[in-house]
Amino acid sequence: MFRRILIANRGEIAVRVIRAAAEMGLQTVAVYSDADRLALHTRLADFAYPIGPPPARDSYLNVDAILEAARMSGAEAIHPGYGFLAENPDFALRVAQAGLVFIGPPPDAIRDMGLKTRARQIMKAAGVPVTPGTESGISDQQEARRVAGEIGYPVLIKAAAGGGGKGMRVVHDPAELAASMEAAQREAASAFGDPEVYLEKYLEGPRHIEVQVLADTHGHCVHVNERECSIQRRHQKVIEEAPSPVITPELRRRLGEAAVAAARACGYVNAGTVEFLLDRHRDFYFMEMNTRLQVEHPVTEMTTGLDLVKEQIRIAAGEPLSFTQDEVRINGHAVECRVYAEDPLNNFFPSTGRIKYLHPPAGPGIRNDSGIFEGGEVTVHYDPLLSKLVAWGADRGQALERMKRALREYHITGVRSNIPFLLLVMEHPAFASGDFDTHFIADHFDPETLARGPEELKVVAAVAAALAQKNGFQKPLPEAAGDNRFCPDSPWLLAGRRENLR
Length: 502
What we know:
Low-confidence stretches: 453-457, 473-502
Mean pLDDT: 90
Number of strands: 22
Oligomer: single chain
Number of domains: 5
CATH architecture of the largest domain: 2-Layer Sandwich
CATH class of the largest domain: Alpha Beta
CATH superfamily of the largest domain: ATP-grasp fold, B domain
Distance between the termini: 49 Å
Radius of gyration: 23 Å
Number of helices: 18
CATH topology of the largest domain: D-amino Acid Aminotransferase, Chain A, domain 1
Strand content: 15-25%
């Protein structure tokens, strides 16, 4: 086992890895940009090293600076977290060349799965279902028209080196194909430095189901059940849960077997996630493989009792998996909400500033993976994720009720957050019933509608607060605070907090 590991990341995932390593008796090394000098992950680690100016390209993407920090600190291994360099095969290779252990998959597996066309070829050869489409890049528009005609519209144009919805276009009509293809190529070149795109059949109304896999260096490979990730906005996951409300035991078995076959086919080692699209007929198709720890891994941990970060570290140290496939169980239900610093009233535009007040939720079944603290600053330089709020229950109903309670308890001022929006999703009848797909947010939450109604609530709250102060009231009326779901800085709420803090 290692004695000391470096975490090449920041925010809540760096905190998560530091805590897991500490429980294993390992020393931890944090790296930080100038903007993160006082960040929580630098305070919790045993050692912390500066790696450059605030822009990520000069710090958290600066491979030389990170490797130098590892050398100076005496770290033996590097955990990349997610994002930044986590799925960069060249970084994994550089780590190995420096005589260190990369806590993740081999560089070749990262490279093969990162190139979507190559991944489709490998999956098809391994017998894993893939959506109809091309297995290589396509640049000729005539060829694209021929393929689209064969598989049938609508079709999806996707960046071969893509992710996060960039370089992606849905085409419903042949007349749209040329312009959509050119736009996707431009966006792919800008985002990934590679204009290559490919075509696949667009599944209407699909659900996004992913399967967690773990593989060690001793030939063991297992799946750890599925996660439902269909609640998305602009192709970015917002709410995840485990298990999926629509997956039967038989379908779970088949999904798991396909995910294990996918991992074995690319020579995978460590923790990874195989992502599938599930159509209306409950047929599933390989979409991509994420060669890292997922943001939503806590819902799997909460329903299996496993610590996936600890498993990652043990695997990287050469130890075999601590459990077998037959020992994997599902205990209850867990749901995760991604809490972002963004303004739902302003088209979810990122919100920056200093956190003036922070009251995180607690209580039975609640877990809050966070990298923020009162007085900390949310800057423009990094992803606006504040925390991952997770609720566990004996069943899905209890998990959702606990999540709603936790969201109502969660108060942040100084920056806007999407907490009120998350609560609206939780309370939506379609979500509560499990009747949704990847278009749920687009279908049910019109940004213009969100922006109109709550403004009236702000005016009402401000007037009510002024009247309360004039008449000597010190605490808010519960019903007024409860109705003001889109105004986290409401004078009603703040007045109550000031009174409670005296």
